[in-house]
Design brief:
Elements lengths: L1 E6 L6 H5 L6 E15 L3 E19 H15 L3 E10 L4 E9 L9 H14 L3 H8 L8
Parallel strand pairs: 1-5
Antiparallel strand pairs: 1-3, 2-3, 2-4, 4-5
Length: about 140
């Protein structure tokens, strides 16, 4: 059984998803209102009135999502839990989906490669310029 999931941060990057052998289906650019992106040192969502996050909505199986977020916990040390959300796809349709959020990130700055792993696909997907600048604002000093 496939479910809709909203992916953000480095999980919009096909190269990152390939590391855990995850191939998404029905991928569409989408936004999620009422949340803001933070990167400390990994991407996460925090509730914030008036904010919006860009990512992709796609279908995956529960097994694939378990594998993806188990990797986040075992390799990166971050425990992400599913949250039901309502995303808006680029064609204007609203869709219920799961988004995975982390309750406890360290607050450290991300490294430049991590920020780049988000920015490159975000540009390819055509995310708004203001959002690209927001992602770039988390980069360490001297980021190019």
């Amino acid at each position: 059984m496939r479910v809709w999931v909203f992916l953000y941060g480095s999980y919009i990057n096909p190269k990152v998803l390939a590391e855990v052998n995850l191939s998404l289906r029905n991928v569409q650019v989408a936004s999620l209102s009422g949340y803001a992106l933070t990167i400390t040192p990994r991407a996460n969502l925090v509730e914030e009135d008036g904010a919006s996050v860009y990512g992709v909505v796609a279908t995956a199986t529960h097994e694939e999502l378990d594998r993806l977020y188990r990797h986040a916990q075992e390799v990166l040390g971050q425990l992400y839990r599913p949250q039901a959300v309502l995303v808006r796809s680029q064609d204007g349709q609203f869709r219920p989906a799961l988004a995975y959020l982390c309750a406890d990130l360290s607050g450290e700055l991300p490294d430049g490669d991590y920020v780049r792993s988000i920015l490159e696909p975000a540009r390819e997907y055509g995310f708004p310029t203001w959002y690209l600048r927001h992602v770039e604002s988390f980069a360490p000093p001297g980021f190019c």
